[in-house]
Q: What sequence folds into this?
């Protein structure tokens, strides 16, 4: 298993390198004279020349790239025009919020999606099956940003059941940081009021984020289970005396979720895309909203830093997904 | 014809086809179908934020424009963007995928590495990164989306191309001296057509959604265009009173994407029964 | 039925099963009778498509959804299995009362679970109390009994790490795990090469003798059946042709089908021609005896009514109007 992990990580390197090149190209090449852009509108030619020398814009492109790579690897992703802090610091500060949201959404997706897909498959062609299928297609067709606004309209503005935005009621402050998750940290600090507030605030954004994920997971679990049920070993296991409940929950499911697991990588990408809109709408202080504000504020460095960061995370997630896949299906671990 | 009948027996797919045809119809005849095509683009402050009524079935927006007309006109934009994007992505991605799949060696590797890199980042983030370097407009959105979507086609075609390359009938063709260009265009491409069509149909739905998101974020269509995503963005500050303003454009997005998704599934089922997801 | 001092462990009586398909109802089994006396190995022989797999599925109640038992009974230890609920089948019969050896060792085992886990699952629900305390120990003993190399290590390995013959041994061990009274085997040697086949047959023979378990062995291969089985039942197109002690039936067949099959066997003749004609489709089967269209002895009665089984000496039975008549010299051209 360790060898498999090593091989997978090794294979990810070219893609990450390529991603860095891409970001570098976007950073340097597109704004045609970055030194002028950095210097500002009223800079004198001398100031522009100074900046050019300082940042090395007058050096050949490949040298600039190595400089860039060095910076990236040492954690220097530039300074945000907006906040005047290193982008890395900005990302670091906002990361926990996005992580919390994403994890809750993923958890919901798996906890609801897998049983839903299984039940639909086992009750093949029944009304429940049709309902689930309707949901799996509809769930992917709905625009997250629109759903977010609709839910806000209904649950927050109309019915006043849930808070409109943010992570926590402003008056309550925030719990002392242990994990970065408000929900967990408030429990750890034994602050019941904070805990409830955190939960109430996370419900809508996490649900909106989770819906396409639930749809995807349910869909692939369903087809995976349907496919597995046709297999000979299921007939054999029934004949040999396996109990039906366990047969499906344990022995069929592990064979079926392999497809769903490989989709999680894709899912994660979708999650990130949705997170951008959801965070912006619910005012969730995470990386998604950071990206939006950076874009609107033309903060190039921030946007590309986020892109690079997301790319790395995505690559890591894909490696993890492969590991899980190998754990579920031992035949995979011996491939590659 | 047999194919069409088989297709129609699949109810979700038939519904998808109906929805898509309806959307295309609306897009083509938008000017005729919209009750007030002129008023849809001009401000009429006296009528602003009117709830749905006989005169304005979908109500009016913050500038007094008839929302139903704007939604209808928006259909044209939405379909245009997704069609152009998918076409562009095919024009770039398919040839690259064919080349990468058919040839071996450096070029093939380079193309596939590039594809991997671009697929390494979720499409939206990449599209945003690109779009923000240019001025926001519908054209910018199309370019950014095309640029980020071609890798999907390249990868699909690459897989098919690779698979076919190893097959005996291609070897036979090479053996009798058929040139690579002919092989690729007349033998490999037709076989890869099926996955391309499936991916294109599903892609249309996906692009409509992403384009709407770009419009919502202000990176795509700009006022006064009747873009659905833009309309939802504009509606925000007038909620909860003007609920119709946010609801109807969003529903339009939903049904359009739903139609393409259902259609795409149906197309996939007839075109490639091997890949058939268990129904 | 022969007079026995103990009742047979399994008695299939007049079983009719049909399957609903696109082309209509297929009468897959028509009045099948099979008897497995205690402690004996009974073979059910027939060509592909004759319905023998359906018979096994009926006994274990794993028939597909579109199948229906039209009439007849499957009496196991005095109980009609057809009257039991799915729950009772799952709890008492499958695994515990009746063990199953499947046909294809490459497809029967679950690829993503260790062997120990899979067989352990059977033990968990059906093992007699004395084995529940140490399931691993029981499995290791079983693996030794089926001559699987490295029994302890095998428990932690995955199916793809074993050869076909080894997997078949594992499946045999699984069938025996809970000390069932009857084993139902669906031509378990078909997917194996000839040498391995012989080893497995020998193994089965020894195990049955040692454990005193009864076995129903289904196959298309007369050679295999003649080596292993005490009694056989010959099936043609879903109908019983004849049955009785193996050696008697094979050396002195009474049903025209059996006679012609034996005569066609490569050991008996140089001609490579088989019986002229083809097996009828179960969707629109001929009335009466289904072999009549191909039978040189067929008379009008054969084409209208299937006779009741005729009892012959030595526990033999035959279903034929003309069983007493000699077969004409067969021109197998």
A:
């Amino acid at each position: 298993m360790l060898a498999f992990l090593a091989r997978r990580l090794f294979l990810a390197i070219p893609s990450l390198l390529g991603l860095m090149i891409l970001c570098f190209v976007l950073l340097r090449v597109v704004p045609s004279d970055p030194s002028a852009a950095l210097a500002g509108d009223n800079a004198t030619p001398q100031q522009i020349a100074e900046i050019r020398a300082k940042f090395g814009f007058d050096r050949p492109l490949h040298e600039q790239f190595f400089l860039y790579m060095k910076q990236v690897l040492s954690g220097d992703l530039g300074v945000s025009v907006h906040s005047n802090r290193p982008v890395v610091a900005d990302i670091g500060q906002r990361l926990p919020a996005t992580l919390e949201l994403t994890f809750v959404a993923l958890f919901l997706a798996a906890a609801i999606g897998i049983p839903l897909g299984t039940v639909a498959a086992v009750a093949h062609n029944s009304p429940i099956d049709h309902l689930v299928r309707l949901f799996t297609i509809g769930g992917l067709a709905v625009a997250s940003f629109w759903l977010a606004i609709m839910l806000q309209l209904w649950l927050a503005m109309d019915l006043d059941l849930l808070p409109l935005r943010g992570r926590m009621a402003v008056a309550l402050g925030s719990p002392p940081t242990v994990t970065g998750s408000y929900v967990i940290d408030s429990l750890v600090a034994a602050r019941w009021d904070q805990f409830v507030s955190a939960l109430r605030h996370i419900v809508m954004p996490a649900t909106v984020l989770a819906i396409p994920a639930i749809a995807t997971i349910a869909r692939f679990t369903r087809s995976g289970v349907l496919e597995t049920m046709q297999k000979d070993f299921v007939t054999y296991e029934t004949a040999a005396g396996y109990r039906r409940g366990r047969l499906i929950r344990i022995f069929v499911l592990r064979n079926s979720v392999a497809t769903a697991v490989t989709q999680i990588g894709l899912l994660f990408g979708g999650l990130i895309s949705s997170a951008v809109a959801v965070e912006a709408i619910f005012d969730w202080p995470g990386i998604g909203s950071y990206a939006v504000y950076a874009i609107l504020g033309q903060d190039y460095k921030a946007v590309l830093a986020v892109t690079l960061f997301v790319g790395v995370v995505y690559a890591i997630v894909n490696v993890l997904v492969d590991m899980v896949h190998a754990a579920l299906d031992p035949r995979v671990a011996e491939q590659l | 014809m047999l194919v069409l009948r088989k297709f129609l027996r699949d109810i979700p797919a038939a519904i998808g086809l109906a929805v898509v045809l309806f959307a295309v119809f609306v897009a083509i005849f938008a000017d005729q179908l919209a009750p007030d095509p002129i008023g849809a683009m001009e401000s009429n402050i006296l009528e602003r934020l009117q709830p749905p009524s006989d005169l304005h079935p979908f109500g009016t927006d913050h500038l007094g424009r008839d929302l139903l007309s704007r939604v209808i006109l928006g259909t044209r934009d939405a379909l245009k963007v997704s069609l152009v994007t998918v076409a562009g992505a095919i024009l770039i991605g398919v040839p690259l995928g064919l080349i990468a799949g058919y040839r071996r060696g450096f070029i093939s590797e380079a193309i596939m590495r590039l594809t991997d890199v671009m697929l390494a980042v979720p499409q939206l983030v990449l599209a945003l990164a690109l779009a923000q370097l240019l001025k926001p407009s519908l054209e910018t959105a199309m370019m950014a989306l095309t640029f980020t979507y071609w890798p999907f086609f390249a990868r699909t075609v690459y897989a098919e191309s690779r698979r076919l390359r190893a097959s005996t009938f291609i070897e036979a063709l090479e053996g009798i001296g058929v040139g690579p260009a002919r092989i690729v265009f007349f033998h490999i491409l037709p076989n890869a057509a099926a996955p391309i069509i499936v991916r294109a149909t599903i892609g249309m739905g996906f692009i409509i959604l992403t384009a709407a998101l770009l419009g919502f974020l202000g990176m795509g269509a700009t006022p006064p265009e009747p873009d659905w995503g833009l309309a939802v963005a504009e509606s925000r500050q007038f909620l909860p009173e003007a609920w119709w303003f946010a609801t109807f454009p969003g529903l339009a997005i939903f049904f359009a994407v739903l139609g393409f998704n259902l259609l795409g599934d149906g197309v996939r089922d007839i075109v490639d029964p091997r890949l058939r997801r268990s129904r | 039925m022969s007079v026995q001092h103990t009742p047979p462990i399994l008695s299939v009586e007049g079983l009719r099963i049909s399957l609903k398909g696109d082309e209509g109802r297929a009468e897959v089994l028509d009045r099948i009778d099979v008897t497995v006396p205690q402690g004996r190995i009974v073979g059910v022989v027939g060509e592909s498509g004759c319905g023998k797999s359906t018979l096994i599925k009926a006994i274990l109640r794993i028939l597909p959804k579109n199948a229906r038992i039209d009439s007849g009974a499957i009496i196991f230890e005095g109980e009609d299995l057809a009257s039991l609920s799915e729950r009772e089948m799952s709890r008492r019969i499958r695994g515990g009362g009746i063990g199953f050896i499947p046909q294809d060792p490459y497809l029967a085992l679950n690829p993503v679970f260790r062997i120990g886990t899979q067989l352990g699952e059977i033990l968990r629900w059906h093992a007699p109390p004395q084995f529940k305390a140490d399931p691993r120990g029981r499995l290791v003993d079983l693996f030794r009994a089926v001559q699987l190399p490295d029994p302890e290590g095998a428990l932690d390995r995955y199916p793809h790490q074993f050869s076909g013959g080894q997997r078949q041994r594992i499946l045999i061990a699984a069938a025996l795990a809970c000390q069932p009274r009857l084993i139902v085997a669906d031509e378990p040697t078909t997917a194996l090469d000839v040498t391995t086949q012989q080893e497995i047959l020998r193994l089965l023979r020894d195990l049955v003798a040692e454990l005193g378990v009864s076995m129903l062995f289904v196959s298309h291969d007369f050679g295999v059946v003649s080596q292993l089985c005490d009694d056989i039942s010959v099936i043609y197109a879903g109908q019983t042709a004849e049955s009785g002690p193996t050696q008697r039936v094979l050396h002195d067949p009474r049903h025209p089908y059996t006679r012609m099959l034996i005569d066609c066997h490569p050991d008996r003749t140089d001609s490579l021609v088989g019986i002229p004609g083809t097996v009828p489709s179960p969707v629109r089967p001929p009335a009466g005896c289904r072999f009549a269209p191909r039978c040189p002895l067929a008379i009008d009665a054969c084409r209208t009514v299937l006779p009741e089984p005729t009892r012959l000496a030595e526990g033999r039975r035959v279903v034929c109007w003309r069983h007493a008549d000699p077969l004409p010299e067969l021109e197998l051209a």
Chain B has eleven helices and no strands. The CA atoms of residues 31 and 37 of chain B lie 6 Å apart. The longest helix of chain B spans residues 180-217.
